[in-house]
């Protein structure tokens, strides 16, 4: 008998493989504005599917609460965004549970919605967020110890790639980290990988691409006229080089094998400058510190709990507050101002007139009662 052979093998990942995949918590600490809240949600989308997209923070929650939850859930990295009283935004990237911790100052950032509004044809997200992004790092080949630590921590935050097992169709997104040695700023970008037919004209691309509808051929007698018609080449029609060419496996697809890879920016954008590297989890000895960073200020002041501050830190915090705001001496009790105009003077009551009216009332009271009884 003709039996159907099983070709598809749906293998579930083992517990060991799941444990190796890094997971992150992206949260905000302290009081932040609306733009920072949306930035937190955008960063969570970048780290999908290995993060908690609908994680809710409260004012009562502390970092210790999230650290206790991180163990059983298998969370390996924390990304904490905060804002100081001066309006400076910071990003802390830490590894659970023993560190190290990287403290970045966010120089500039752009949200996902702003990038979509600036594009003529924005990319509508589909199934891209079901796959983890690839990481491309440029300029991190420095021999300095702190740069080696930075590159290793960023690489460990994303799942590793196995070249033999990874499929080309599973590569949907890419995160680009570009380090400028002169300024010391890291450019953070997020792109979606799109595939376009390579080596064919614009008319053939429209016919081959299944997502778009077929063109209107009413004004053409033959399809060759449509294909050979001269049209102005747009930015998407320019031929790509050999570097952008990739071979896609056939499978059940009827399209061409040679495809060109193009990147469409999704956002968000960030410019990050490294301020400090600490040995532990958001604490510990300082392994690296930038010249612009000041101790007990900046990101430390936004994340620090005043009850757990030391005496030296309290004094530095007081000095910083005194420099920001002038000294205001308020009275012990606030007294209402005296109103001179429009206020009537109190007059002493006449005791004689009161005695006369009271005597009349006493005399007339029993007479009224007798009249009512009658």
Question: TL;DR?
Answer:
This protein is an alpha+beta fold and 374 residues long. The protein has helices at 15-20, 34-46, 63-73, 112-118, 145-156, 202-208, 223-228, 299-303, 311-324, 351-373, and strands spanning 24-29, 77-83, 89-95, 101-110, 134-138, 173-179, 185-197, 245-247, 258-265, 269-278, 286-289.
Question: Could you outline the blueprint of secondary structure elements for this entry?
Answer:
Elements: H1 15-20, E1 24-29, H2 34-46, H3 63-73, E2 77-83, E3 89-95, E4 101-110, H4 112-118, E5 134-138, H5 145-156, E6 173-179, E7 185-197, H6 202-208, H7 223-228, E8 245-247, E9 258-265, E10 269-278, E11 286-289, H8 299-303, H9 311-324, H10 351-373
Parallel strand pairs: 1-2, 5-6
Antiparallel strand pairs: 2-3, 3-4, 4-10, 6-7, 7-9, 7-10, 8-9, 10-11
What does this structure look like?
This protein has 374 residues and is an alpha+beta fold. The protein has 10 helices and 11 strands. The protein has helices at residues 15-20, 34-46, 63-73, 112-118, 145-156, 202-208, 223-228, 299-303, 311-324, 351-373, and strands at residues 24-29, 77-83, 89-95, 101-110, 134-138, 173-179, 185-197, 245-247, 258-265, 269-278, 286-289. Strands 1, 2, 3, 4, 5, 6, 7, 8, 9, 10 and 11 form an 11-stranded mixed β-sheet that branches. Strand 5, helix 5 (145-156) and strand 6 (173-179) form a beta-alpha-beta unit. The longest helix has 23 residues, at 351-373. The radius of gyration is 36 Å and the shape is globular. 16% of the residues are buried. Residues 232-239 and 324-334 have low confidence and may be disordered.
């Amino acid at each position: 008998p003709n039996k159907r052979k099983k070709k598809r093998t749906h293998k579930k990942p083992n517990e060991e493989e799941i444990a190796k995949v890094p997971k992150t918590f992206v949260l905000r600490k302290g009081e932040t504005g609306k733009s920072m809240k949306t930035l937190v949600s955008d960063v969570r989308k970048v780290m999908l599917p290995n993060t908690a997209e609908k994680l809710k923070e409260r004012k009562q929650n502390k970092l210790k609460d999230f650290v206790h939850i991180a163990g059983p859930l298998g969370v390996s990295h924390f990304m904490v965004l905060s804002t100081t009283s001066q309006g400076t935004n910071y990003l802390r990237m830490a590894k659970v549970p023993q560190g190290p911790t990287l403290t970045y100052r966010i120089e500039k950032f752009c949200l996902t919605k702003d990038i979509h509004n600036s594009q003529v044809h924005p990319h509508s997200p589909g199934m891209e967020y079901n796959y983890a992004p690839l990481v491309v790092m440029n300029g991190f080949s420095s021999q300095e110890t702190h740069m080696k630590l930075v590159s290793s921590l960023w690489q460990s935050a994303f799942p590793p790639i196995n070249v033999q097992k990874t499929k080309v169709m599973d590569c949907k997104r890419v995160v680009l980290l570009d380090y400028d040695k002169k300024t010391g700023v890291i450019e953070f970008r997020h792109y979606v990988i799109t595939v376009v037919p390579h080596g064919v004209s614009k008319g053939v691309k429209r016919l081959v691409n299944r997502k778009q509808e077929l063109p209107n051929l009413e004004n053409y007698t033959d399809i060759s006229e449509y294909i050979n018609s001269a049209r102005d080449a747009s930015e998407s029609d320019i031929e790509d080089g050999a570097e952008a060419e990739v071979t896609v496996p056939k499978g059940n697809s009827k399209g061409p094998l040679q495809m060109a890879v193009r990147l469409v920016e999704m956002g968000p954008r960030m410019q990050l400058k490294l301020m400090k590297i600490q040995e532990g989890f958001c604490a510990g000895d300082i392994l690296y510190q930038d010249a612009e960073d000041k101790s007990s200020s900046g990101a430390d002041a936004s994340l620090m709990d005043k009850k757990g501050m030391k005496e030296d830190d309290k004094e530095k915090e007081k000095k910083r507050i005194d420099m920001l705001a002038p000294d205001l001496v308020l009275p012990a009790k606030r007294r209402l101002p005296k109103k001179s105009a429009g206020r009537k003077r109190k007059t002493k009551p006449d005791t004689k007139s009161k005695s006369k009216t009271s005597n009349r009332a006493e005399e007339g009271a029993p007479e009224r009662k007798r009249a009512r009884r009658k």
